[in-house]
């Protein structure tokens, strides 16, 4: 007879690791219903939460690493359960128990040793900026420009950083970079359950920033934005943090950036999870796109708070997702269906995922993936 | 010369286990003014009370102190004991050595010291007690009922049937409220209009009810037993004395708007009656929709159209007020996933009621927007309720009406019915049995909160349908249920003007936004303003039996007041020494009960005067008064100072 026996020590451990929100769940199952994983396979979010409550989570099961922390569930949960915190708590136990999937383990080691997830040398962190005449941040520089490890190191995403500095220079913004001194913000490491790594990264970064006299940070990635703005203050790092979409929308309002060149394209904007649902930034990216003459902004189905995750958060950007199980594939189809010529993004992870999807779907000609910065760059 | 009796209660072990009651009694005995000090097991018991009564008579006591539980528990009891023994009840003082002492301290020695100190303070205080007389205020036997739905109708009828006058003020052109919009009621499946219209008729014909429809309350002043109310009787543009309700005018009218009664599913003209069984059966012209073209005039044989009418203000004097203003429904457009407003065949529960109703836009036929009969219908529970993103509370009626809908659908169509629920709340009499009956009718239940309703088909089956996506935990995964129609069980929510109405009648709101009752368990009918009662859904979502019960309870309370004829006012009200008053009138600004007015004194100065009927004895004016002219009977400056100095 198979009887289920709750395991109190495991349940307590999950609560201690930050899984307190399990208590508020009233088992309605909305989280499962709205989770993007259920568009491509079966994933019972509610079951994982219920198992956590009774200490019955199977830590050997790969399912606990599926959550992309997109917050679709958190957005709609009728009890306001912080489901992502529960996932994080389960993963923390997993990390401590040594069951981290290989891909993640490699990434964490990389971040821990060379300060970036790509296994590249720390010294090369500012190589992307060579020849672009960007100054190093010193005491007195107004903005620290944090490009994020992905544009800094990944050749596909590098163009985002380059577009960014071109726009910033044209707008006369006083900014500088820190280069090899700074490390990965640690946001995804934390979501992937490596709390110790996150804390050491954060404390390190805070020390570096403070020592260099940083007070204002301009980020490229919504994930870095989220970490610096929402998670660093808890560890003593209090900076004024802004995402480039907020910053540039402001500059456009103030007339410091004037998009004058026409860009006659139909553009669909994809709300990134960490700008949108996590930080409620929906209007500014659209404001920038609408300011570009000739650009026709189309809304995707599932936009704004309903946006469909690209699948990159929660550490999944470093993991392999099966071809039939990629949300980014569905998103590309949606964009093509609404007649968009360009799918505009505001996050390096989204860019990587959509680029990958385009390639593997063999729809290379059907649509372009561009960061908002690239479109703006072309318009000024 | 004070002759004080002190009674120290053991309260079983509640006090005696921590406080050394013998020692405390001995301590009390030590005061010169204390003639007798006794300790007793339960002073509130009959023998305990008898002890006090005897002592008063035999020892000529003129002040009584009982050191026991909280005054909230037994102050009334012991005051009555004093009165029974011929002593003015306000020469009594209660000392709390339970909730304030034995129940909150662990150290027995310290607790005993504290008890002694509290009694010492009381002994000093009672020296300054004066006999006080409660006043009798006359009570106006008329009642105002605001809102003519089932709650207002029930309350009005019960009071009027006792041959006391009721003014029933209703905002719409007819009484009936939301209950009139319903088709059948659970669990008996009675026709709603059929059980409501006899009551409406009674109201219309009742000699003791003055019905004011198309009217709103504008101003309220006064206090329990003596309210003055201004009511605006909105201009109907149709002479009510001439109108015969023949409906000919409608034929002429060319102005058409969405019908509120049909929740936007149908239209009405600018000249209209909300529904066929309206009481009064008189037409009205909606000013905001009317073109003033007068196309209706030639059709009216009674010559009743009068576009020159003005609003009329009437003043009423009543002793009690019943608020029965009802509820509003949640607009689910904000839940983008459910597609309300985007998809034709996603409707709200109230809209579906209208569809089922014989007087509704489809004449009682359950049909899709294009007129076809639905093959399958999904009913989604908890839309806007039990959801911290909208309303945290449960709307109480939806599980039951969802079952009712299932029955009506099964009765009138061949459609498959699905219910997506989180819990099935069938708590009332006959409710669980109704649920069982519905299960036998073949309704399919899925336990899951719906994630989305979409028209994007993934399979052949889903083409042209609305697909409901929900996780079924028992089956163990997501299921997609293609249906023709989706009914949303929307939340009952407070009306949009709840804030204004609350301010008008000086009552509060609870956290959920409905009107605040005096006590959630023991008094869900009265409010913190004496004389104003809340009944029905304006106090919180509930079904018809509970509404009727609450309305009857409100009526009973009011009849009790009317039958008594007078009110005994609490004599512990504020006083103002007009000789000391400098007329700064700061007290009038701080009084939460608007109980202070300014007057000209006999020697021509502006002074503040307390309206003792409104005064609740809160003491704010006393604290505010600079020259010390304000004082509070029962809590005079002298009494309080003596108490504090003794401590």
Number of strands of chain A: 8
Most extensive protein-chain contact, per-chain counts: A-B, 22 and 23 residues
**Mean pLDDT across residues of chain B:** 95
> Measured on Cα atoms, how large is the radius of gyration of chain B?
32 Å
Strand order of the largest sheet of chain B: 10-7-6-18-29
Unreliably modeled segments of chain A: none
Give the SSE layout:
The complex is a heterodimer of chains A (380) and B (647).
Chain A: H1 8-19, H2 30-34, H3 37-40, H4 45-54, H5 72-76, H6 83-96, H7 102-114, E1 143-146, H8 149-153, H9 158-170, E2 175-176, H10 187-191, H11 195-211, E3 216-219, H12 222-231, E4 240-243, H13 244-253, E5 266-269, H14 283-290, E6 296-298, H15 327-337, E7 342-345, H16 348-361, E8 368-371, H17 372-379
Parallel strand pairs in A: 1-2, 1-3, 3-4, 5-6, 5-7, 7-8
Helix pairs in contact in A: 1-4, 1-6, 9-17, 13-14, 15-16
Chain B: E1 4-9, H1 21-29, E2 34-40, H2 46-59, E3 63-68, H3 71-84, E4 92-96, H4 98-102, H5 108-126, E5 135-138, E6 143-146, H6 150-161, E7 166-169, E8 184-185, E9 190-191, H7 192-205, E10 209-212, E11 215-223, E12 226-233, H8 248-252, E13 256-258, E14 267-269, E15 271-272, E16 284-285, E17 312-318, E18 320-323, E19 328-329, E20 346-348, H9 349-356, E21 376-383, H10 398-412, E22 416-421, H11 431-440, E23 444-447, E24 452-454, E25 466-472, E26 477-483, E27 485-490, E28 492-493, H12 498-505, E29 532-534, H13 544-564, E30 566-569, E31 574-576, H14 586-590, E32 596-600, E33 606-610, H15 620-624, E34 630-632, H16 637-646
Parallel strand pairs in B: 1-2, 1-3, 3-4, 6-7, 6-18, 7-10, 18-29, 20-27, 21-22, 21-27, 22-23
Antiparallel strand pairs in B: 5-30, 8-9, 11-12, 12-17, 13-14, 15-16, 19-28, 24-25, 25-26, 31-34, 32-33
Helix pairs in contact in B: 1-5, 2-3, 5-16, 6-7, 6-13, 9-10, 10-11
Provide an overview of this structure.
The complex is a heterodimer of chains A (380) and B (647). Chain A is 43% helix and 8% strand. By secondary structure, chain A is α/β, with parallel strands linked by helices. The model of chain A has no long low-confidence stretch (mean pLDDT 96). Chain B is an alpha/beta fold and 647 residues long. Chain B has a 5-stranded parallel beta sheet with strand order 10-7-6-18-29, covered by helices on one side. In chain B, strands 20-27-21-22-23 form a 5-stranded parallel beta sheet. In chain B, strands 2-1-3-4 form a 4-stranded parallel beta sheet, with helices on both faces. The longest helix of chain B has 21 residues. The radius of gyration of chain B is 32 Å and the shape is globular. Chain B starts with a strand and ends with a helix. Chains A and B meet through helix 2 and helix 4 of A and strand 25 of B.
């Amino acid at each position: 007879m198979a009887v289920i026996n709750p395991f109190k020590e495991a349940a307590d451990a999950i609560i201690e690791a930050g899984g307190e929100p399990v208590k508020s769940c009233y088992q309605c199952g909305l989280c499962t219903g709205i989770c993007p994983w259920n568009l491509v396979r079966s994933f019972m979010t509610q079951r994982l939460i219920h198992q956590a409550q009774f200490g019955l989570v199977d830590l050997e099961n790969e399912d606990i690493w599926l959550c992309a922390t997109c917050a679709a569930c958190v957005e709609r949960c009728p009890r306001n359960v912080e489901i992502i915190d529960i996932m994080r708590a389960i993963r923390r136990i997993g990390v401590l128990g040594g069951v981290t999937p290989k891909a993640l383990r490699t990434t964490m080691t990389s971040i821990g040793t060379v300060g970036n997830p790509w296994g590249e040398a720390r010294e090369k962190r500012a190589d992307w900026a060579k020849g672009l005449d960007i100054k190093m941040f010193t005491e007195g520089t107004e903005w620290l420009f944090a490009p994020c490890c992905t544009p800094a190191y990944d050749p596909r995403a590098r163009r985002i950083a380059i577009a960014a500095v071109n726009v910033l220079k044209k707008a006369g913004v006083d900014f500088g970079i820190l280069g090899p001194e700074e490390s990965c913000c640690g946001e995804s490491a934390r979501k992937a359950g490596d709390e110790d790594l996150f804390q050491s990264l954060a404390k390190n970064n805070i020390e570096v920033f403070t020592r260099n006299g940083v007070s204002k940070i301009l980020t490229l990635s919504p994930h870095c934005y989220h970490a610096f703005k929402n998670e660093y203050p808890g560890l003593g790092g209090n900076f004024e943090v802004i995402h480039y979409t907020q910053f540039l929308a402001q500059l456009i309002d103030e007339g410091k950036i004037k998009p004058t060149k026409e860009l006659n394209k139909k553009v669909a904007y994809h709300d990134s999870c960490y700008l949108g649902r996590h930080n409620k930034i929906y209007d500014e990216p659209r404001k920038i796109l609408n300011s570009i003459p000739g650009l026709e902004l189309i809304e995707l189905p599932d936009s704004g708070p309903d946006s469909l995750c690209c699948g990159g958060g929660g550490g999944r950007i470093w993991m392999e997702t099966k071809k039939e199980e990629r949300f980014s594939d569905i998103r590309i189809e949606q964009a093509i269906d609404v007649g968009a010529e360009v799918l505009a993004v505001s996050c390096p992870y989204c860019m990587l995922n959509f680029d990958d999807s385009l390639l593997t779907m063999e729809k290379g000609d059907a649509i372009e993936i561009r960061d908002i910065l690239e479109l703006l760059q072309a318009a000024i | 010369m004070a002759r004080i009796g002190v009674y120290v209660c053991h309260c079983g072990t509640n006090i005696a286990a921590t406080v050394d009651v013998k020692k405390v009694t001995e301590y009390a005995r030590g005061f010169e003014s204390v003639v007798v000090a006794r300790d007793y097991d339960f002073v509130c018991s009959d023998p305990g009370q008898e002890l006090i009564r005897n002592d008063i008579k035999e020892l000529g006591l003129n002040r009584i102190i009982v050191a026991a539980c909280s005054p909230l528990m037994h102050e009334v009891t012991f005051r009555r004991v004093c009165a029974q023994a011929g002593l003015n009840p306000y020469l009594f003082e209660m000392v709390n050595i339970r909730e304030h002492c034995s129940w909150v301290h662990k150290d027995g020695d310290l607790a005993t010291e504290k008890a002694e100190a509290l009694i010492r303070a009381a002994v000093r205080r009672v020296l300054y007690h004066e006999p006080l007389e409660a006043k009798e205020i006359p009570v106006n036997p008329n009642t105002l009922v605001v809102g003519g739905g089932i709650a207002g109708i029930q309350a009005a009828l019960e009071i009027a049937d006792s041959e006391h006058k009721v003014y029933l003020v209703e905002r719409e052109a007819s009484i009936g409220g939301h209950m009139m919009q319903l088709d059948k009621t659970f669990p008996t499946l009675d026709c709603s209009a059929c059980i409501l219209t006899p009551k409406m008729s009674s109201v219309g014909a009742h000699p003791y009810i003055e019905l004011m429809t198309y009217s709103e309350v504008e101003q309220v002043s006064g206090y329990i037993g003596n309210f003055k109310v201004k009511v605006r009787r909105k201009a109907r543009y149709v002479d009510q004395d001439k109108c015969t309700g023949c409906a000919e005018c409608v034929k002429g009218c060319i102005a058409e708007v969405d019908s509120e009664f049909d929740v936007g599913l149908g239209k009405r003209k600018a000249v209209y009656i909300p529904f066929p069984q309206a009481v009064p059966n008189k037409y009205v012209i909606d000013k905001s929709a009317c073109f003033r073209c007068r196309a209706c005039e030639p059709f009216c044989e009674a010559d009743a159209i009068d576009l020159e009418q003005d609003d009329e203000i009437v003043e009423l004097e009543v002793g009690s007020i019943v608020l029965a203003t009802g509820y509003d429904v949640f607009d689910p457009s904000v839940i983008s996933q459910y597609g309300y407003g985007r998809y034709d065949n996603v409707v709200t529960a109230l809209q579906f009621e209208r569809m089922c109703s014989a007087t509704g836009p489809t004449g009682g036929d359950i049909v899709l927007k294009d007129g076809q009969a639905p093959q399958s219908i999904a009913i989604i529970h908890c839309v806007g309720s039990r959801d911290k993103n909208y309303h945290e509370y449960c709307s109480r009626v939806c599980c039951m009406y969802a079952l009712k809908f299932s029955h009506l659908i099964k009765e009138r169509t061949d459609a498959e019915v699905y219910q997506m629920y989180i819990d099935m709340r069938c708590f009332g009499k006959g409710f669980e049995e109704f649920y069982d009956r519905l299960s036998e009718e073949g309704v399919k239940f899925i336990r899951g909160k719906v994630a989305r309703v979409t028209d994007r088909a993934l399979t052949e089956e889903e083409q042209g349908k609305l697909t409901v996506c929900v996780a079924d935990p028992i089956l163990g995964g997501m299921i997609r249920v293609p249906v023709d129609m989706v009914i949303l069980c929307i939340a009952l929510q407070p009306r949009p003007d709840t804030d204004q109405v609350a301010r008008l009648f000086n009552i509060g709101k609870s956290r959920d936004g409905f009107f605040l009752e005096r006590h959630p368990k023991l008094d869900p009918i009265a409010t913190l303003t004496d004389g104003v009662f809340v009944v029905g859904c304006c106090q919180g979502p509930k079904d018809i039996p509970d509404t009727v019960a609450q309305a009857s309870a409100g009526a009973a309370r009011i009849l009790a007041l009317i039958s008594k004829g007078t009110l005994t006012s609490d004599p512990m009200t504020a006083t103002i020494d007009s000789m000391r008053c400098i007329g700064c009138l700061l007290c009038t600004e701080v009084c939460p009960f608007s109980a202070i007015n300014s007057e000209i004194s006999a020697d021509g100065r502006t002074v503040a005067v307390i309206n003792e009927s409104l005064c609740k004895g809160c003491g704010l004016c006393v604290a505010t008064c600079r020259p010390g002219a304000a004082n509070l009977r029962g809590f005079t400056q002298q009494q309080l100072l003596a108490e504090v100095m003794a401590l």
